[in-house]
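Renewal narrative, Specific Aim 1. Our central claim is that a sequence can be written position by position from structural information alone. The example that follows is taken directly from our test logs and has not been curated for this report. It begins with the structure tokens describing the chain, in the order in which they were read.
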């Protein structure tokens, strides 16, 4: 009986660890894609940022419109001086939905000393992580 209990406990711990490790891997991959995308936005390469965005974002907004929005953001905030990662929140997939991760950063721009940025990446059908949402505010949520 003691051996059976130990075996069940070992299986439970092992499968739980594997699920957690997959979550860590998802967050790391999503963060890498998000930070690459942010660099494109920071350098005003809005067209490439749009190309690297999720299918849903590209369907919702044309490349031209995205470039206009990106330029407006850059004009309002100025150049990026620093960005600090604050948190990640993974949302598991439900039926018919993809896994997504929302990241929060606190950034400093030349025209705004404190900006709170929230970027959401989604795991798409092709296996790639892509940004699907971006919001910023000078007020903490």
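The sequence written for that structure reads:
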């Amino acid at each position: 009986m003691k051996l059976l209990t130990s075996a069940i406990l070992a299986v439970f711990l092992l499968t739980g660890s594997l699920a957690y490790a997959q979550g860590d891997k998802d967050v790391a991959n999503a963060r890498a894609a998000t930070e690459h995308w942010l660099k494109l936005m920071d350098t005003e390469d809005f067209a490439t940022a749009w190309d690297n965005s999720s299918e849903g974002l590209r369907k919702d907004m044309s490349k031209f419109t995205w470039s206009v929005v990106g330029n407006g953001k850059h004009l309002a905030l100025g150049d990026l001086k620093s960005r600090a990662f604050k948190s990640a929140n993974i949302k598991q997939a439900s039926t018919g939905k993809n896994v997504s991760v929302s990241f929060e950063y606190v950034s400093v721009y030349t025209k705004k000393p404190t900006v709170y940025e929230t970027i959401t990446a989604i795991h798409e059908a092709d296996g790639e992580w892509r940004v699907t949402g971006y919001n910023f505010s000078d007020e903490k949520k």
